[in-house]
């Protein structure tokens, strides 16, 4: 690491000397040093280590771009004192007497550039957000934590994907060039919007829309994902708040129940007759079920139209 030497073209030198001799703005320039600067850069300018106040925008731009340190290594610490900064200004053709520097010194540290498995796993997790229907269980990557001498970026490419695993290539780039390739394996589960109980549901209770909500959970064969299968159903056994609903936990609240007496309506060609029958199976509204005529024993085909009420369709 070294302090920068001036490299100002001759024409610019003449312009700066002219400003120095004839412009009054230098007396209004205040450079307030920061007490501590932590950076990822190897090269710092005056604006990186201080706050510059001046009425002249062009002069502000010039001062801001003056290099004060270059070649700072990762993890290296450096201290710049007021007299060193004045010397740097003088080397860049700025009259030290025309500026006011507040602060005696600034401590500078370049951050260490760390490449770790955690950083790569975080990047992979971000990359896999393109798959909203998976839940990551584990990420494996062969890498030990290490320090790099230059900043890096990561690029991830998918090689292949199975029902449980995703195989990735992780490229480490510096200055846009690939310097290394790592392989990563991701184990995952598929997830889906599953019906869960918003509160404790008691046995015999009829489930309403307010009793349930959707939550992303690992997919299992007996979890219910369709709200229409749940709303209006009867709770068969106690369901705790937050529990996923399964088909074994509920039973439909049939308007017509097996072995119950029902009203059978015959309505054809202006003739309407009502008789009593016995339902031979459970039936939901709109469903066609078998009903036994309680008087004749004849089996009828009927459509469920309401509570304990069916419409005659035909006989067997």
From TrEMBL:
<dbReference type="GO" id="GO:0044780">
    <property type="term" value="P:bacterial-type flagellum assembly"/>
</dbReference>
<feature type="domain" description="SAF">
    <location>
        <begin position="192"/>
        <end position="251"/>
    </location>
</feature>
<keyword id="KW-0969">Cilium</keyword>
<dbReference type="InterPro" id="IPR039246">
    <property type="entry name" value="Flagellar_FlgA"/>
</dbReference>
<dbReference type="GO" id="GO:0042597">
    <property type="term" value="C:periplasmic space"/>
</dbReference>
<keyword id="KW-0732">Signal</keyword>
<keyword id="KW-0574">Periplasm</keyword>
<dbReference type="InterPro" id="IPR036732">
    <property type="entry name" value="AFP_Neu5c_C_sf"/>
</dbReference>
<keyword id="KW-0282">Flagellum</keyword>
<dbReference type="InterPro" id="IPR013974">
    <property type="entry name" value="SAF"/>
</dbReference>
<dbReference type="InterPro" id="IPR017585">
    <property type="entry name" value="SAF_FlgA"/>
</dbReference>
<protein>
    <submittedName>
        <fullName>Flagella basal body P-ring formation protein FlgA</fullName>
    </submittedName>
</protein>
<keyword id="KW-0966">Cell projection</keyword>
<dbReference type="Pfam" id="PF13144">
    <property type="entry name" value="ChapFlgA"/>
</dbReference>
């Amino acid at each position: 690491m070294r302090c920068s030497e001036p490299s100002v073209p001759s024409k610019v030198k003449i312009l700066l000397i002219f400003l120095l001799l004839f412009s009054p703005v230098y007396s209004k320039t205040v450079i307030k040093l920061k007490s501590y600067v932590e950076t990822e850069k190897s090269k710092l300018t005056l604006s990186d280590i201080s706050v510059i106040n001046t009425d002249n925008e062009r002069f502000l731009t010039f001062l801001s771009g003056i290099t004060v340190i270059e070649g700072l290594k990762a993890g290296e610490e450096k201290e710049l004192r007021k007299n060193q900064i004045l010397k740097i200004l003088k080397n860049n053709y700025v009259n030290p007497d025309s500026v006011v520097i507040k602060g005696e010194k600034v401590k500078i540290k370049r951050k260490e550039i760390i490449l770790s498995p955690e950083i790569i796993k975080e990047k992979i997790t971000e990359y896999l957000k393109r798959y909203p229907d998976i839940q990551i269980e584990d990420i494996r990557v062969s890498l030990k934590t290490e320090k790099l001498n230059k900043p890096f970026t990561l690029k991830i490419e998918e090689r292949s994907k199975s029902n449980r695993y995703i195989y990735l290539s992780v490229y480490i780039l510096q200055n846009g060039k690939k310097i290394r390739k790592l392989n990563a394996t991701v184990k995952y589960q598929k997830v889906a919007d599953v019906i869960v109980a918003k509160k404790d549901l008691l046995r015999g209770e009829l489930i309403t829309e307010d009793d349930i909500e959707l939550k992303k959970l690992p997919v299992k064969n007996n979890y219910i994902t369709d709200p229409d299968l749940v709303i209006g159903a009867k709770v068969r056994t106690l369901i705790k708040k937050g529990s996923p609903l399964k088909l074994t936990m509920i039973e439909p609240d049939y308007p017509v129940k097996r072995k119950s007496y029902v009203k059978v309506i015959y309505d054809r060609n202006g003739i309407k007759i009502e008789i009593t029958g016995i339902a031979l199976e459970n039936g939901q509204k709109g469903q066609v079920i078998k009903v036994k005529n309680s008087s004749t024993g004849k089996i009828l085909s009927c459509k469920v139209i309401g509570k304990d009420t069916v419409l005659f369709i035909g006989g067997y």
